[in-house]
Design a protein that fits this description.
Layout: E1 2-4, E2 10-12, H1 14-23, E3 27-30, H2 34-39, E4 46-47, H3 55-61, E5 68-73, H4 77-88, E6 93-99
Parallel strand pairs: 2-6, 3-4, 3-5, 5-6
Antiparallel strand pairs: 1-2
Length: 109
């Protein structure tokens, strides 16, 4: 299920996010801090802490404004904020998928 968020981004269930990860070319973005990422993250996720997101840092990780980006954090608060920022920066396919605390598909360290 995909829902339209208030900040120009969309939200989706983690089951749908996992399906997209398995079948499409997507970028998974972890917006927590480095220590949190190091303690466990979704396989293949790129780190971009929410407090560091600006036009330059986003472009380094997500060069194409139309790339499909699945964003998560610890519980969902920072990921919503990050999605809103990315949408304001012109990214058009940004999806908020909640927090890693409810991710049921395994993590890597």
């Amino acid at each position: 299920m995909i829902l339209k968020g208030r900040g120009g981004y969309k939200s989706m269930s983690q089951a749908k996010a996992k399906e997209m990860m398995d079948t499409q070319n997507v970028l998974v973005l972890d917006v927590r801090e480095q220590a949190e990422y190091d303690s466990g993250h979704i396989a293949g996720a790129r780190l971009l802490p929410v407090g560091t997101i600006n036009a330059q840092s986003a472009a380094e990780i997500i060069p194409a404004k139309d790339a499909v980006v699945l964003v998560y954090c610890h519980s969902g608060n920072r990921s919503r904020k990050a999605c809103a920022i990315l949408a304001r920066l012109g990214y058009t396919e940004v999806y908020e998928m909640g927090g890693i605390t409810t991710w049921q598909y395994g993590v890597e360290r």
